[in-house]
Specification:
alpha/beta; Nucleotidyltransferase, domain 5; 2 domains; 5-stranded mixed β-sheet; globular; binds 5'-O-[(R)-(carboxyoxy)(hydroxy)phosphoryl]adenosine; binds zinc ion
Length: 365
């Protein structure tokens, strides 16, 4: 028997304002009672990226109503929730302040415990909500601000096996799109153009392929794209498609090598893992069908299950924050004091060293 728990989650770490209510009953069945997300994409797209000041103001304007809406859709009142979970890092400090302060105020007023949740922990634990995964498993987080391969051992127990030493993968997509004149966010635009392109026209570099470490690097790839584009300018639509297809192919090959090594390491470290081991993918880049195909094939080849939660739960949302709070509460983790502070940097694995350039943009997770 597990305790029945119902949690209100709040997420404001980047450019999505979100609130959600999630519960788990005594038999262990979990249920998303509401999931409200307001994307600020339109407000930032003119600038080609997230503007922190605009993001923070937009959170202030939207959050109260969004929380009310989440409670209404869940058909519960604040009295009916057991705790409040609010993202308190990593992310843009202005947005984090808005969400965490609101969480504190509600917790105080309603007399409920507060969990200050690490946004990355939300991503890391989502697959337990959607697929009932048991520990341990591997997670690849590929978003606009992070590219990390994480061993998830248990609630609060994370080991970073690999991270980017320069750009995050989503950032590489966004920068490549920008230099090719494609709209922001770049990932979907690059993927669309790549469909009609020749992936073998350009032989872009596959950074760190063959190296034993499990880290990633994407800035050299971006530079190679820029050089290729300059050499053949002016670019026709076909040129752009060919560059996008070749860019995606280089990334697929890189991931295949890096993640393939990660799966091998997992098998070596956990030879007796009872059920088929799992690789979970999360983050906006997980929407990319070619990359999904690569990871699926890699998992099939290595005897792993490939788990990709629905896209709305792979990208930023408050369900994962509520769920992380629920998991912590259920495991007996004490709530946070109301003077807890937001942290723009907050690695999941506190023992992992900071790599050059890691989390440089620091804004998105
Ligand atoms: O997780 P996410 O929605 O936001 C944060 O970074 O927090 O990820 C956004 C990133 C952007 O860099 C975007 O270009 C990328 O995910 N992305 C994609 C695709 N859809 C979104 N990258 C490649 N292919 C896609 N289809
Ligand atoms: Zn995120």
């Amino acid at each position: 028997m597990v305790p029945f728990l119902r949690i209100l989650g709040i997420e404001t770490s980047c450019d999505e304002t979100a609130a959600a209510v999630v519960e788990r009953d005594a038999e262990g069945h979990s249920k998303i009672l509401s999931d409200v997300v307001l994307s600020q994409l339109d407000e930032h797209s003119a600038y080609g990226g997230v503007v922190p000041e605009i993001a923070a103001r937009a959170h202030v304007e939207a959050l109260d109503e969004l929380i009310e809406e989440a409670l209404k859709r869940a058909n519960v009142s604040l009295n009916d929730v057991d705790a409040i979970a609010a993202t308190s890092g990593p992310g843009l400090i202005g947005g984090l302040l808005v969400g965490l302060m609101t969480g504190k105020a509600i917790a105080r007023a309603a007399g409920k415990p507060l969990y200050a949740v690490n946004h990355l922990e939300g991503h890391a634990l989502t697959a337990r909500l959607t697929d009932g995964l048991s520990f341990p498993y591997l997670m690849l987080l590929v978003s606009g601000g992070h590219t990390q391969l994480i061993l998830v051992r248990g609630v609060g127990q994370y080991e970073r096996w690999g991270t980017t030493i320069d750009d995050a993968l989503g950032e590489a997509f966004d920068k490549t799109a920008k230099l090719l004149g494609l709209p922001y966010p770049g990932g979907p635009a690059v993927e669309r153009m790549a469909r009609d392109g020749n992936p073998d026209r350009f032989n872009f570099p596959r950074p760190l392929v063959g190296e034993a470490r499990l880290d990633f690097s994407f800035s050299g790839l971006k530079t190679a794209v820029r050089q290729a584009a300059q050499e053949i300018a002016p670019l026709s639509d076909q040129d752009v498609s060919d560059i996008c297809a070749s860019f995606q192919k280089a990334i697929s090959r890189t991931l295949k090598d890096r993640i393939g090594r990660g799966l091998q390491r997992f098998k070596t470290e956990f030879p007796a893992a009872g059920e088929k081991p799992a690789l979970v993918v999360a983050g906006g880049v997980a929407a990319n069908l070619e990359l999904r195909g690569t990871l699926q094939a890699l998992c099939d080849k290595n005897g792993f299950r490939f788990i990709a939660p629905p896209l709305s739960l792979c990208t930023d949302n408050a369900v994962m924050i509520a769920w992380a709070g629920l998991e912590r509460m259920a495991t007996g983790v004490q709530p946070d004091a109301l003077d807890v502070q937001p942290r723009s940097r907050w690695p999941l694995d506190s023992k992992a060293e900071t790599l050059i350039g890691f989390g440089k943009r620091g804004a998105k997770a």
